[in-house]
Amino acid sequence: MKRFLIRLRGLKKNLADAAVYWLGGDDGDKDLEKAAQAFNIVTNEPAKSPHFEVWEENWETVEMFLRLQTQWRIGMSGRTGLDYLAAEWLFRLYSVGKPSEMLEDLQVMEAAVLEAQAAREV
Predict the structure, then answer these.
(1) pLDDT 10s digits, 49-84
(2) Torsion of CA 86, 87, 90, 94, to 10 degrees
(3) Could you tell me the CA-to-CA distances from 30 to 5, 21, 68, 102 in Å, in that order?
């Protein structure tokens, strides 16, 4: 998968970060914490909050993503993508005004989850 998320800025970056937070955060930080503890190194990094701030402009998309959280297509290596038929049904159910924009934003979140999942498997 191309690593296009690095180029994301602003609103889309917040969506990608929200999706990774949903997946369970960044395991790299946990590994770093464990390594620091093993060598008795004290870090000045503040503890991560159990909350994630979602910008108001992204709230509708994040809500839809959470509605879809049980609608992943699964393959032999785990999640492969969201079920777009389920997304279309939810768009109609919740009267989404701009479904193409909502889908594009969900795809940003979907790609962030898939990229984070692939990074954990390495």
Answers:
(1) 667 788 899 999 999 999 999 999 999 988 999 999
(2) 180
(3) 21, 13, 27, 32
